Amino acid sequence: MIESTPEPAPRRYGRGVFLLTVAGGVSSLAWGKAVWGHVSSAVSPVASSLAPFLPTGGWRIYTISGSMPSFDRATWRLKVGGLVEKPVSLSYDDLLALPKASQISTFHCVTGWTVKNVHWGGVRLGDLFDRTSPLPQAGALQFVSAEQPYIDYLAMPQARLHDVMLAYEMDGKPLPREHGAPLRLIIPEMYGYKNVKWLSEVNLVGDAGSGYWEQLGYDRDAWVGHSNGYGS
Amino acid sequence: MSRHLRRFSRTERTLHWVNALGFFMLLATGLILYLPSLSVLVGRRPLVKDMHFWSGVGWIAALALVAALGDRRGLLRTARELDAFDADDVRWLRRRRPAPPGRFNAGQKVNASLTAAFTVLFLVSGLLLWLGERDTRFRFASTVVLHDGLMYAALVLLVGHLYLALIHPATRHALRGMTIGTVDEDWARAHHPKWVPDHVDGDRPRR
Distance from the CA of B56 to the CA of which of A39, A80, B29, B62 falls in 20 to 30 A? Predict the structure, then answer.
């Protein structure tokens, strides 16, 4: 009689692969963003050659309505009013005639993605104030988007930060439609939802109210890394 | 005349195609939300976002429903097969030959485990994205990285899977098993030899 050696028990590798993958994925909630930052800077030269099929540069396009506002250079106006001595209605050419400022800053979205070193060109709020002369009781600014009902506010000290800008240029080109053409607010110290796109009005008001996302529970003072549940 | 062997039950095939349909719905709507060029082209973000969310809920619910109403014992048996790696499976992974596979080769087993894990992680990260928009306690800076990274990893698996199922001449016969349920016995002997001797009479499955 032949003695057969018993077949060794099979190894349960299947559940091992499953559990390790789930554990690795869940743990990445703690380290994913830091690692991705290194990976994306290493692969970005390759990725940019695959544009526009990849979200190059890391931008995501968020909108709240069914379609994006379109820009007609002939009819577009930026109204600056509210608590000012001289309300104005600026055409696109009026805007371009104002002193131009440039800056390179990093854009942070509250959902976790970041775009580094964006080149912005536009006007400082101070130059608008020179044209409109805000009244002493003006304590905040209301930014109204053509994408209704999107609005947001900045308190006056926030609006006076050195790198706050109304941007009409991005990376050397006119601001693209999906980024808020022709004009958007840039405040790099705060998350993207404060950086109102498709600006149509800037109104000086007494106090800051709640913007679109703030009415849905996001922080009014959206400091990067120190609001909305981060770093607190 | 060559005989046919039943490789996948109706429950297994339904589960596979429900999974595929859900994945493609989520991939299509997800890419519109994710790629700036498609976001601009399609617009209607709130609608696409709702479609993405409800596709995800529908996907998981449909998988659970098929599993609950279908042949549960058969599914458990298949899950145990996918879990177990015998000595030949280990040799297969180390690219040693011969390493005759059973009903599934080691690559298919790893693919199944990864796919199941990705499903769980897609669900967890997707729910966190949804909840995080409503409550800061569920908001993590890396959730979106995990969700996007999973998409890339799942795409790599999918491309390999589609290549083997549709294009590669030696393996594409397997598609028949996932559509009408049976495969050619000669093909099975060549690709899954340890599975075939289990069949007593050819046209009925043993497992």
Answer: A39
CATH number at residue B127: 1.20.950.20
How many domains would you assign to chain B?
1
Q: Which of A18, A28, A61 sits opposite B142 (nearest CB)?
A: A28
ipTM of the complex model: 0.92
Residue to substitute from B38, B40, B118, B151, interface A, most A β-carbons within 10 A:
B40
Mean pLDDT by 10 residues, chain A (232 residues): 68 96 95 82 65 65 89 95 96 96 95 90 95 96 96 96 97 94 97 97 96 92 90 66
Which pTM value belongs to this model? 0.85
Domains of chain A: 14-58 (no CATH), 66-216 (3.90.420.10)
B156: left (phi over 0), alpha (psi -120 to 50) or beta: alpha
Which residue segment(s) compose the domain that B194 sits in? 4-198
Per-residue burial over B45-62, b = 16 or more CB atoms within 10 Å of its CB, e = otherwise: beebbebbbebbebbbeb
Work out the minimum CA distance from A124 to partner chain B, whole angstroms: 28
In a domain, B119, yes or no: yes
